[in-house]
Amino acid sequence: MQKTNENGNLIKTQRRLKRGYSFFGFGMMVCFFQCSSLAQHYPAKPIKITVGFSPGGIADVSARLLAPQLAEILGQSVVIENRPGASGAIATEKVSMAAADGYTLLAPTAADTVIPALRKQLPYNLERDLSPVALVAIAPFILVVHPSVPVTNVKELIALARLRPGKLSYGSVGLGTTPHLSAEALKVMATLDIVHIPYKGGLDNVIANASGAVDMVFASLPSLTPMIGSGHSRLKPLAVTSIKRASFMPQLPTMNESGVPGYDRSSWVGILAPKNTSKDIISKLNAAIITAANNHAVKDSFNQQGLEPQSLGVEQFGFFIKDQLEQNVKLIAIIGLKKD
Predict the structure, then answer these.
(1) pLDDT at 244 over 50
(2) Coil, helix or strand at residue 132
(3) Cα(60)–Cα(64) distance, rounded to whole angstroms?
(4) What's the confidence (pLDDT) of residue 38?
(5) For the chain, what is the mean pLDDT?
(6) Contact at 8 Å (CB) between 103 and 43?
(7) Mean pLDDT throughout 115-143?
(8) Cis before 43? omega within 30
(9) Distance CA 48, CA 111 (A)
(10) Is the domain covering 142-258 a CATH 3.40.190.10 domain?
(11) How far apart are CA 238 and CA 164, in angstroms?
């Protein structure tokens, strides 16, 4: 009799499990079809790209140049929202908590992969809470020196710095910024002793370089154009910091070509979405962004701003972010910057 009861209970349990699996399977099917339907009809309303910096910066300029062409491809308007503060962290946190529906995106920069190495606590994790969508553009820096510095290329600059340890100086827009880390990477990779002089930001470091207050700077094309453009010789460009030559200054060699093997430090702009955004939506956005960024007119506008359009797939961009995070952690540890 006991055996019969046990068998009966076992059969009832198995039936309940089967019903549970059926409901679970049904729920998964509903979710799949709903997600597929959402992706097929995406976008059905305007898309917002959040920028963590004030208007006029690399992320803002890139997003605004990209938006009209992206809107034309997707059939919906693309709105740019500036949420400056905390080196972009305020905007990143906001987007990380947004609905994962593809309508709220973030335009991160290289600064977003520096912050985790400099802050003890952040209310988000870049890799955990956000999904890579596309790398929009790379913005190589240009290494320039004051005309009084007796060098014509990076190899000669390295030789001079080794001959005069602690005598040459470079200006930056502040500790932990991408131009600062670009100079520190040169110091580490070429084993140099060059003095860092930080400025408040903007064009102060470039102006200081042009006046001879510092010997060199790593700066973006827009900030240098008045100093190195046609007919100007207030600063002497030596190399670009990207691994490949820049299309906007193809005659200028890379640091890698100029005696610093493997050197590759640039600013950049990408697009991230909240975690769990549909893969179909992300794929659609990735394709649209790559097409928009490489549109002839957009590409020309990017080049004028010192930006090189990119064509990385979603997974490649994810690897890129991971590599940037790891590089910054290592470099910041080597140069001894402390976390706040």
Answers:
(1) yes
(2) strand
(3) 6
(4) 54
(5) 90
(6) yes
(7) 96
(8) yes
(9) 21
(10) yes
(11) 19
Q: What's the CA gap between 118 and 107, in Å, rounded?
A: 20
More confident residue, 22 or 196: 196
Percent of the chain with pLDDT over 70: 87
pLDDT (0 to 100) of residue 19 = 55
Find the helix packing angle between 279-293 and 314-335, rounded to 10°: 80
Which amino acid is it at 206? V
What value does the mean pLDDT take over residues 103-132?
Answer: 96
Residue given tokens 């490649």 in the structure block: 316
Q: Residue 10: what pLDDT? A: 45
With beta carbons less than 8 A apart as the criterion, state whether 80 and 51 touch: yes
Q: Cα–Cα distances in Å, from 92 out to 83, 99, 134, 272, 274? A: 9, 13, 16, 9, 10
Q: What number of other Cβ atoms are within 10 A of residue 301's Cβ?
A: 17
Dihedral (CA of 78, 83, 87, 93) sign? negative
User: How open is the CA angle 280-307-73, to the nearest 5 degrees?
Assistant: 35
Q: What is the pTM of this model?
A: 0.86
Asked whether this chain's domains 42-139+268-335 and 142-258 adopt the same fold, the reply is yes
pLDDT tens digits for range 306-335: 999 999 999 999 999 999 999 999 999 999
Q: What is the pLDDT of residue 2?
A: 46
Phi-psi label, residue 75: left if phi above 0, alpha if psi -120 to 50, beta otherwise = left
Distance CA 95, CA 272 (A): 9
Average pLDDT estimate for 233-256: 95
Task: Look up residue 87 and give its DSSP letter.
Answer: G
- Domain range summary for the chain, segments of one domain joined by +: 42-139+268-335, 142-258
- CATH classification (class only), 42-139+268-335: alpha beta
DSSP 186-204: HHHHHT---EEEE--STTH
314, two tokens: 């979603």
pLDDT at position 271 is 98
Q: What is the pLDDT of residue 14?
A: 53
* Main-chain phi, psi angles of 55, to 5 degrees: -55, 145
Beta carbons of 293 and 116 less than 8 angstroms apart: no
